[in-house]
Fold this protein.
Amino acid sequence: MHASDGNEQDHADVSDGRRLRKLRPQTAKVCIYCKQLKPASDYNSHQYTTKTDRISTRLVSGCKPCNRKRIDTYRARVKPTYDAKALEWRRANRKRISEQQRRRRMADPDKARAQYLRRYGLTLETYAQMQETQGNRCACCHGQPQRVGRKGAFLHVDHCHESGKVRGLLCHQCNVILGLSKDSSATLRRLADYLEKPRQSGNSGGD
C-alpha cells in the first residue's frame, strides 16, 4: 500500500478494482456571501471523483442561511411572472389537462384516490376504516353514496376549513350543502326552521 500524505486517506476496497484516495473533508469554510468562517455543518456538500481517481467531498460556496436567503429572494422575484404564465397556460389547455387527469385516474385509481386523501392527512387504510365505522353511509343524511357524473360513488372527506381537522365522510349532496352554507350552523338552523313552518295557503281574492 502506498503511503498517503497528510491530506489524503487511502481506500483499498473498490468495486472496479481501482484504488481510490479520499480527501479529508473540510472542517470549516468562509462563506462567499456573508464572509464569515463557519463550520462544515453550516454548508451543503457534494461528492465527485476526479480524473486521478480521487473521491472528493466539496463544500458549496455559500452557507445554508445565505443560500436559503438567495433562493427566497429569487423565488419572490420570479414567482409573479411564473404564476401568471402558468395560469395563462392552464386556461389555454384546460381540455388537455382534464384529459390527462382522467387518464391518470383510470390508469391507477388507487393512486389518484391516495393523492386526494393526502390533502387531509389520510391514507387509503384510514379512509376505509372511516367508511366501515360509518357503515359506508353519509355522516349527515345516513344515505349511501350516489354516483355523480362520470365519477364513481364515493363519500367525500369533510373537514373544518379553519382548523383543517377532518370531521367525517359525506355524500355529494350533503357536502355541497355545507359548502354553499359556508359551514354556517346558524344558516342551516334557519333553513331547518323554515322547512318546519306550517305551509300557509295563499290568500284568495274575496268579494
